[in-house]
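Need a sequence for this fold. Nothing fancy.
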């Protein structure tokens, strides 16, 4: 039997919630050509002139507001997920981050120090396809394998946005919240520049060319982040029995001046409050692990926006983190 190891991969955080550490992290992250998809010189100028002078300080303050005794929430919770998975599978399990530490390089070298390992099952922890998350994680693993001539087969778990077991785990982990009284649920997904989607459309004539392009089936949907988040929402709503007028989709974490997917989560929160919603719940299915974008952007800043506009209560439905239902799904993938 093939000797297998498991590598979970997520996005990554700065090493500390300080301005210099966040500057290093943002520089690595935003100089990735899969994230800011411009020629190197233009990317270097934008990052150096418009991002690095002011964003590290503001982001460091945001990180400080959610930092834990174990460090960044994203990393601490990913560690917990890895530890929980270890108890459910017979293979070695490691966890890596695309930016910062522990790096994909460090963890692949650690895994392959055991010369009996023949295959790495690589699980990018993103339900939906995006070059800025999935592709860059895969390319980084391939770069490391080629650089060190590692004698392993890389088997990759693709985006799992509509896999019934993933949807079931997501509904199960959200269930205690769905039983509360609420006015509306926002499915808030990390945003993307629209150009990242249209660029991947093989027909060149489908994606974002009309409002309902993401419904039904089309070859472009294999790499269409917007289609995939809509499908997750639809599958979740069906499984949880949500009425169509009790939920909507919005996109958070916009950066820069390009046109990003909409509607924007903050605008949606404001509008809901103005229409009289008192208790809004926010579920963030693009993240399987709570992080800055859920704990700070939604639970802190989003709540402020909602309350200022007349809302009373915003509840962040936690990500799946190390929920046993999610750990079981991962364990099932690991044993196949
Ligand atoms: C869930 C999938 C994600 C996609 C798609 C994504 C695209 C994307 N992100 C940025 C810029 C930033 N994102 C930041 C934080 C961040 N992003 C994701 C996930 C996705 N990003 C996560 C999980 C996190 C949290 C990291 C943590 O430490 O908790 C940040 C850093 C924080 C900040 O300064 O706001 C930036 C910047 C772009 C430009 C992009 C697509 C082009
Ligand atoms: Fe992001
Ligand atoms: Fe689409």
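Here you go.
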């Amino acid at each position: 039997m093939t000797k297998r190891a498991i590598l979970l991969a997520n996005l990554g955080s700065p090493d500390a919630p300080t301005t210099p550490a966040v500057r290093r992290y943002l520089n690595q992250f935003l100089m990735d050509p899969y994230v800011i998809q411009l020629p190197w010189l233009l990317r270097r100028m934008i990052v150096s002139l418009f991002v690095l002078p002011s964003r590290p300080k503001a982001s460091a303050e945001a990180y400080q507001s959610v930092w834990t005794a174990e460090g960044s929430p994203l990393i601490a919770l990913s560690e917990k997920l890895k530890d929980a998975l270890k108890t459910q599978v017979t293979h070695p399990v490691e966890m890596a981050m695309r930016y910062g530490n522990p790096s994909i390089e460090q963890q692949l070298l650690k895994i392959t120090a055991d010369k009996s390992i023949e295959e790495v099952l690589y699980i990018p922890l993103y339900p939906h396809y995006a070059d800025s998350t999935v592709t860059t994680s895969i390319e980084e693993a391939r770069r490391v394998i080629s650089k060190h001539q590692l004698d392993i087969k890389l088997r990759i778990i693709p985006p799992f946005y509509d896999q019934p077991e993933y949807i079931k785990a997501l509904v199960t982990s959200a269930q205690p919240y769905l039983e509360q009284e609420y006015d509306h649920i926002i499915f808030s997904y990390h945003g993307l520049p629209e150009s990242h989607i249209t660029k991947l459309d093989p027909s060149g004539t489908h994606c974002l060319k009309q409002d309902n392009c993401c419904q039904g089936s089309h070859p472009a949907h294999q790499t269409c982040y917007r289609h995939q988040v809509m499908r997750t929402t639809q599958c979740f709503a069906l499984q949880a029995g949500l009425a169509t007028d009790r939920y909507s989709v919005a996109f958070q974490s916009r950066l820069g001046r390009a046109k990003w997917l909409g509607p924007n989560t903050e605008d949606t929160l404001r509008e809901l409050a103005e229409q009289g919603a008192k208790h809004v719940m926010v579920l963030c299915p693009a993240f399987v692990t709570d992080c800055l974008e859920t704990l700070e952007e939604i639970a802190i800043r989003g709540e402020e926006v909602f309350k200022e506009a007349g809302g009373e209560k915003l509840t962040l439905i936690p990500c799946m983190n190390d929920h046993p239902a999610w750990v079981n799904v991962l364990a099932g993938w690991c044993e196949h």
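For context: The radius of gyration is 20 Å.
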